[in-house]
Design a protein that fits this description.
The structure holds 3 protein chains of 3 kinds. Helix content of chain A is about 75%, strand content about 0%. Chain A is an all-alpha fold. Chain A has 2 domains: about 5-50, no CATH class; about 70-310, Orthogonal Bundle (MetI-like fold), CATH 1.10.3720.10. In chain A, helix 9 packs across helix 11 (about 215-240). By secondary structure, chain B is mostly helical. In chain B, about 70% of the residues lie in helices and about 5% in strands. In chain B, the strands form 2 sheets. In chain B, strands 1-2 form a two-stranded antiparallel sheet. A two-stranded antiparallel sheet of chain B has the order 3-4. In chain B, strand 3 (about 240-245) and strand 4 form a beta hairpin. Chain B starts with 9 loop residues before the first helix and ends with a helix. By secondary structure, chain C is an alpha/beta fold. Chain C has 21 helices and 17 strands. The chains are: A mainly alpha, B mainly alpha, C alpha/beta. Chains in contact: A-B, A-C, B-C. At the A-B interface, helix 3, helix 5, helix 6, helix 7 and helix 9 of A face helix 1, helix 4, helix 5, helix 6 and helix 7 of B.
Amino acid sequence: MHLPAAFTARTSGRGILRWLNAPERRGPLLVAPAILTLLLVNILPLLWSFGLSFFNYRANRMATPRFDGLENYVDLLGDDRVWERFVTTGLIVTGSVGLQLVVGFGLAMLFARKFPLRRVLLMLVLTPMMLSFVSVGIFFKLFYDPTLGLLSWFVAMFTGEPFAIMATPAGAIWAIVIADAWMWSPFVMLLVLAGLVSVPDYLYEAAQVDRASHWRRFKTITFPYVKGLILLALLFRTIETFKTFELVYLITAGGPGTATETIAVYAYRLGFQNFRTSEASAMAYLILFIVIVLTSLYLYLVKQRNSEEV
Amino acid sequence: MSFRKHNEGGWGQTLVSGLVAVIYFAPVFWMILTAFKTRQDALAIPPKLIFTPTLENFRSVFVEVTSSGEVVSTGAWLYFANSAFIAGASVLLALIIGTLAAYAFSRYPLKGNDTYLFIILTTRMLPPIVVIIPIFLLFRITGLSGTYIGIILLYTSFNLPFSIWMMKSFFDDLDREVEDSARMDGSSDWAVFGRIVLPQVLAGLAATLVFALILTWNEFIFALLLTGPETRTVPVAIASTIGGSIGVDWGKLSAMITLFLIPVFIVTFALQNQLLRGVTFGTIRK
Amino acid sequence: MKKYLLASVAILAGSAACAEDIVIRMAAPDWGPTRFMQDYANETYTAPSGNNVTLEIDFIPWANFFDRVNASLNSGEQKYQMIVSDSQWLGNFVEAGHFLKLNEYIEADPELQAIMQDVHPALVAGFSTYPHVPAEEIEAAGGYAPDISYYGFPQFPDAYFTYYRNDLFCDEAENAAFEEQYGAPLPCEPADWDDVTWEDWGNYGAFFTRTAGETLAGETLSEDVYGIAYQAGKPLDFSTMQINAFLWQWGGGIWDESNEPEAQVMGVVNSPENIEAFETYLSLLDYAPPIAQTGQMGIFEIQDLYMQGKIAAIIDWAALAAPVVDPATSSVADVTSFAMMPGHMRDGEIDRSANLGGQPFVLTSWNDETVTREALDVVKWWLSEETQIAAVKAGGQSGLQSVMNNPEYDSWSPWNEYFRRSLPWQKDLWHVPEMFEMLTQQQEEFDRAITGQISAEEALNNVAEFQDELLRDAGRLD
C-alpha cells in the first residue's frame, strides 16, 4: 500500500497537517468530529437497542435472553393497544402541529412589520418555548383544574358551571394539544417571520403598482418565500411532537382511560414499568420506522417543489 | 409602500400586536406572579391579581432550615452554575462541530451525502425514554456517569443534528460567486470560510445558538439519570419541588422557573435582531 | 453461625487495625422524612465499629424516583449501598438479584431480630417479605421466622385516614339541619368518627355540597364547596390505593399472591362483593369536586382543594397531613381535625381494611461484607427507639410498636393516634414482578369507570381477564 508522504516523513507535524489539508480530504475531515460524536453517543446505543429487539430480554429477570427473531415486532403489530396508541399520537401530532402552523403563521404576520415596542412584545411571545416541559405540564394541569384552574373560572363566568376539560377523551386530547401548541407556536413563528422579513421590498412595490389583491400578493410573493421554512418547521415539529411524553405524563397521565396515551408513553411503560425491555426496543424501532417514512415523504415533497421552481 | 419601512405599522399595530402578545404571555405571567405569592394566594379562585408580594419563595430556593433549626444553603447556586456551564459548553461545541460539518456537507459533498444527513436526523427521532438504558450502560462502562464531560458530550450530540441541518440550509443559500471569485484571487479555502462565508451566516449561528440553548437548558430526563449530586442541573431541582408532602410547592417552583428563565431570556433578547434576520438572511442575499 | 463468627472476627480485626472510610450511599426520594434521616445522621451517627462511616443520601425528585433507581439498577451501575424502595417494587428487584436477602444477618444478630419483632407485623409483611407473607402469619411467627425471606425495613410507613373541618362538622345550625334530614348529628369530635360508615360518609358528602350563593356554617358562599373526596386518579397507584380498601372491606379482594399458584383471579377480582364495593366507591364520587370526573383526583389535588377550604372532609395519607395544619400553607389550618377513615359494616362490625403506604429501605446485593455490616449498623441506628422518636417528633412516622406504644406518642402530632390505630388494618398490593403491568392496566380500567365510560362490573371483568392471562403466562396461576 502506498502511504502518503506525511506518514513516512514523521519528522514533520506540518506534513500531517498538509496531508489533512488536501482538498479531497476536506469534506471527510470537517465532518469527522460530528460523525464520531454521534456514533459514540447516539448511534451505538441505538444499535444496541436494535439488537436487543430480537431477543426476549427482560431487565428484571436473571434468565439468559433467548433469540426470538421477529417475534417482538409481530406481537406488537398484532396488538390492538399499539395501534390505538399510534392513532392517539397521530391525532395529537396533527392537532398540535396544525395549530402551531396556524398560530405561528398568524403571529408572524402580526410581527412582520416594524412598529414601536416590537422588540419587547416579540419577546413576550417567544417566552413559552423557553420553559421546560415540567413547568408547562404542571402549570397547565393547574389551569385545567375545574375548581382551582383559570380556564374553568373563565368559562364559568359565562356558563355558571365549572368546566372540566379533561373529563372526556376528546377534551383531554385538546388539553394536551393546546399546551403543546402554545409552547411551540413561537418556534414556527420565528421561522415564518424570518421568511417574511426576507421578502425583497421591490416585489411588494411592484405588486403595489399592479394593484394586486392582498390574497394574490400573499400567494405569489409572500408564500413562496416562507414555504421552505414552513416545511422545515413542519418537519422538526412533527418529529418532536411524535415523541410527546412529558406533557402527557404530567397533564393527563394518558387518561381518561388510555385516551391520551401516546406511543412514547406506551414505550416507556413497556420498557420501564413492565420490564419488557426487548419489546420496548422493538417498539422504539417501529416508531423510528414511521418517523423515517414521514420524514422521507416530507423531504421528497421539498425536492419536488424545488425542482418545480427550476 | 415598503413592507418593512421603519415603524410603518405605527402605534395602531403596537396596540393590536400588544394585545395578542399579552394574551399569549399570560400563562408565563401567571407563573412569574405565583413566584411572589403565598401558597393560599397562588391557588385562590377567583385569581388574585392584587396581593401582598413575598420574597419568601426566592429565599426558599437558596436556603432551607434543617430539622435542627439550622439555616443552610440548598445548593441551588451549584445547580445554576452547573446548568450554565453544561449548557454553555455543549451548545458551543455543537455549534463549532456542527458548523464545520454543515459547511462540508454543503461545499464538499461526500459520496452518499444525503444519506449521512438523513442518518444524522434520525438520531433525533426516537423518544429519549427508549434509549435511556443503553446510554446509561454506555456511561457506566466509560465511567462518564455523573461527570461534566459525560453530560456535555451527550448534549452536544443532541444538538448536532439540528445545528448541522440549520447551518447547512444557510450555507446552501449563500451566493457562491463571491467565494469563487475570492478563490480566484488566491485566497485559501480556510480564508474563504473565515472571512467571507462565516460573516454571512452570523445571523444563522445566532438562531442556531438560541434554539440549541433552549433545548439544552431545559433538558430533564438525561439530567435526572446521568448527573450526580455535584453535576446536577436546575431542571432536576425544579422537579424536586413536586411530590413532597405538599404536592406541588407552587411558590418555590415558580421562583425557580422565573430565575431559570432570566438567562435564556436575556440571551434571546440580545440576539433577537440576528435571530430575525437570521433564520433566512434574505436581506443579505439581495 | 460460622459465618457470624468469621464476620465478627473481621469486624474486630478491622476496628483494631485501622479505621476505614466508608460511604454508605443511599438513593432516596427528595422530601422531609429522608432529609431528616440525612440531617440526623450527620448530627448523631457514629459507627460502633470505629470505622469512619458516612451516610450519603442521593436525593432524587419524587416524581422520577422510580425511573432513576430503575435505570441505575438495570444498567448494573452498582452505585448505591442502600435504596429506599416502594414496597411493591420488591419482587422486581429481588428477582433481578439487586436487593440483599437479610435472613442470615437477622438469624445471626439478636438486635436485628428484636427490631423485626418490634416492627409492626403489617409493615414486616408489606415492607420486608418476598415472596409475600401476610401480616397474620408474621404475627403468629412473632415477627421473625427463618422460613420467611426478609429484605426491607421501614423508612417511612404510611396510612390514610380522615381529615375534616371541625368548623363545619361542629357547627350547631349545620348539625340541626343534618339531624333533621338524616336523624343523627354530624361527627364533631374525632371519637364520633369511630362509628362512621361509608353510607354516613355519603350523607356528609351530599349534605355539605353547596353552590355559590348558598350558606355554609352561617356564611354566604362566593364559590362552590364540595362534601367529600378521596383519591380517584389515574397517575401512579392513586385510585387503586383507595379502591383496594373498599374491596377488602366488602369481603372481596385482590389476587392473593401469597397463595400462588392456587389463588385464582377469575371470580375473585370480579366477584359480586368486589363489584358492589367498586360501585359504592364510584357513587361516592358524586359528592367530590368536579376534578373527580377527569380521573385526575390524586392525593395532592384533594390536599390542595382541602387546604383551600373547598371540601368538608377528605381521606389522605399521614405524609400529607403536616401542611394542612400549617397556617402558612392552609386556610383551614386552625379548624382541621383528624379521625379514623370510615368503614363498612359487615357482620355487625366495622371493617376498616386499607392499603398500606410508605416506603421501606433495603440493602443492595453487591456490597462486600464490611460495607454490609456497616449498612446494617446504620439500619440499627435508624430503627433505634431514640432515632425513631426524633423522626416522629420531626413530623415523620415510625413502624416500631415500642414507639407507638409510648404514652406520649399520640401527643407528638394531631394525627398520630389515627396512624397508630389504622396500622393493624393495613394490607398491601401485590409484590410480584408483574405488579407494574397489573397496576397500569388496572388503573386504566378503573379510570374508565371513574370517568363514566364503562361500568364497575365491566372494569373489573376487564381487569380479571387481563390478570388471568398475564399470571398464567408468568406461571403464577394453575
